[in-house]
Amino acid sequence: xxxxxxxxxxxxxxxxxxxxxxxxxxxxxxxxxxxxxxxxxxxxxxxxxxxxxxxxxxxxxxxxxxxxxxxxxxxxxxxxxxxxxxxxxxxxxxxxxxxxxxxxxxxxxxxxxxxxxxxxxxxxxxxxxxxxxxxxxxxxxxxxxxxxxxxxxxxxxxxxxxxxxxxxxxxxxxxxxxxxxxxxxxxxxxxxxxxxxxxxxxxxxxxxxxxxxxxxxxxxxxxxxxxxxxxxxxxxxxxxxxxxxxxxxxxxxxxxxxxxxxxxxxxxxxxxxxxxxxxxxxxxxxxxxxxxxxxxxxxxxxxxxxxxxxxxxxxxxxxxxxxxxxxxxxxxxxxxxxxxxxxxxxxxxxxxxxxxxxxxxxxxxxxxxxxxxxxxxxxxxxxxxxxxxxxxxxxxxxxxxxxxxxxxxxxxxxxxxxxxxxxxxxxxxxxxxxxxxxxxxxxxxxxxxxxxxxxxxxxxxxxxxxxxxxxxxxxxxxxxxxxxxxxxxxxxxxxxxxxxxxxxxxxxxxxxxxxxxxxxxxxxxxxxxxxxxxxxxxxxxxxxxxxxxxxxxxxxxxxxxxxxxxxxxxxxxxxxxxxxxxxxxxxxxxxxxxxxxxxxxxxxxxxxxxxxxxxxxxxxxxxxxxxxxxxxxxxxxxxxxxxxxxxxxxxxxxxxxxxxxxxxxxxxxxxxxxxxxxxxxxxxxxxxxxxxxxxxxxxxxxxxxxxxxxxxxxxxxxxxxxxxxxxx
Length: 728
What we know:
This protein is an alpha+beta fold. It is built from 29 helices and ten strands.
């Protein structure tokens, strides 16, 4: 068998919905409609019954817009200007009501604030000044001194008053800069938004430290969205420093910043620090808000997501279940917040290889989101994407395609076709074509994704690094090692710069770069990179994580190629133990390691041990094949041989599929040559690849049916293995 089964790690964005809790609204200090009630990451407004989630708005009908003019006491000229702004910004119809309200509110605020900006002049001081001048002319210095003392006292009062007014002006200017930052943020102009928030911070007087903390929080949130993790971390830390000095240690606002800072540490790969901060936030929320408060559920959800990322599934599941219970009690079973937890539980089961359970939870989530928001909503798009990716993992590509396409279409409807969120859903489509071996189509989509991300995101955004990584994987599959190496190295540079030098993304790219060197026979280079990747994975994910097991498997294969069989065996077995512990003994990833051990033992001529692992792998890969072989074992041994070439899978769109080859078929001979091993068939196909005529191939199907097939020279598109029937 072909032992070269190094797993290419692809960093793809599968929408993982986490409920980031912010203590301040998305748009600073603006009341939406008549009332607003915060419910985590969704806001329910009063008048208009508008739903706002993830910056997506579904609102009232256009004919109600003119009523807003009276509601806000706006002139006709102002109304015309507002609609001009809406037109210039190409605001979508479903967003018009919400955006109009925001502009109108800000307009009224500016009108009110402008009245406060007039300079103050005290007429009494002017009168006293004239009296002082006259007293000095009259040489009545005693009276002049009295007038001067009176004037100085009034002037000091004026100075204090003016100082207070100046502080008010600074606060107003800071707020205006922040609102300008919010507008830039909405348009995804993250750097411009951050610059406005910085201006707000610098304008805040020393006496208003908590207001300064608010703007630092905005910088942290925006920088996080922009992929500027270092800047985000610094801003959150400054925010926390102020809050810890100004507020009680168990204030809810401190808990909020702990949670936000934990999110950035999670993005940075600093999982231990993130876990500590989530737990500190959880303690505060439970103490001040109660154990069944929605904010407790939000942090439980975030902490569970962290454990899932670390591969600590046993710790993640009960936290998701507790968060789900709180949200059901708070909002009812058919609420979007409940759907979010269903989605996250589905992702957990998918990671554990429990695909049927994952599918059931995705569908629960989808039903709720469609019922609440309709078909053209961001959350609906997310579930379509995740469900499509699950079908992709299962190899059910024809079912995956329409779901991923729906996700893309919805995102294009909500945003525009060059929006980063559209690029994220396009990534799943590129991955689908990658899995199907349609590399040129996948490459074209990845280039489109890269184009969007370069236009909309900072040049060192982690999502751009992800696209470089995926292009590297594509070029590797096509045998273009120079290009693959180039893109893997570009991804590493960005990950190291924006996240850190020891994050799991760097580990994945290092592993893939090492794989290229293995194929080129550059074993020393490969070994250095594999060991570095292994060290990073151990540091951040621990020794019982699936990615650590993958790194062990890759290093084992390298030792195999170098004929260091004892080292290879030990590493394979360590990898096998981790996979079985996390995924169970019947998972397809376990079969990969079993096949590798099978190949290793065959190389060492330890045939009995090899066949034990071979049969174990086959029972995972194809239970039906085992049943067929067991039922026909005696016939096959007597009429073929005790060793056979078994088809365990057919590649979609391949020659094998077109000629009707099936799983569990036995390939008896190829071009007149009887076959006893998979390697014999591989060699025969290679030898006859330049034949000008079709080749005769004999297969045996269940119940000993002999079928003669004509095949074209070249690749068949099957996954085969040698089976020794005596070990069944």
